[in-house]
Design a protein that fits this description.
The protein is α+β, with helices and mostly antiparallel strands and 102 residues long. It contains 3 helices and 5 strands, in the order ββαβααββ. The chain has a single domain, classed as Ubiquitin-like (UB roll) (Roll), CATH 3.10.20.30. The chain binds FE2/S2 (inorganic) cluster (FES).
């Protein structure tokens, strides 16, 4: 299973993905630069990713904590915290890009 992530230089990386892992962990495990200072507790907001339009309604709704953090960072409507996205079979092929500043 795969996720596809365009880094901040616009280079697309096809990454092997493991069910049950956070998307943030998958991206970082493959060496794509993505901040995650809080370790996945929805505090730092550094792990923000932009979700491709065709995938947005396949993700679960963000919880209040995630929404608060996205608001604080003036995130676009297409952004999510990748630490709050748990990879599953249904997300095979998930396509993301990294926002300019995270
Ligand atoms: S890793 Fe800090 S908010 Fe996701």
């Amino acid at each position: 299973m795969k996720i596809v992530v365009a880094d901040r230089d616009g280079v697309a990386h096809e990454l092997d993905a493991v069910e049950g892992w956070r998307v943030m962990e998958i991206v970082r495990a493959h060496g794509v630069k993505l901040g995650a200072e809080c370790g996945g507790s929805s505090v730092c907001g550094e792990c923000r990713v932009r979700v491709a339009p065709e995938w947005q309604n396949k993700l679960h709704e963000p919880r209040d904590e995630e929404l608060d953090r996205l608001d604080e960072h003036l995130a676009g409507d297409d952004e999510r915290l990748s630490c709050q996205l748990i990879f599953s079979e249904e997300l095979n092929g998930l396509t993301l890009s990294l926002p300019d500043a995270a």
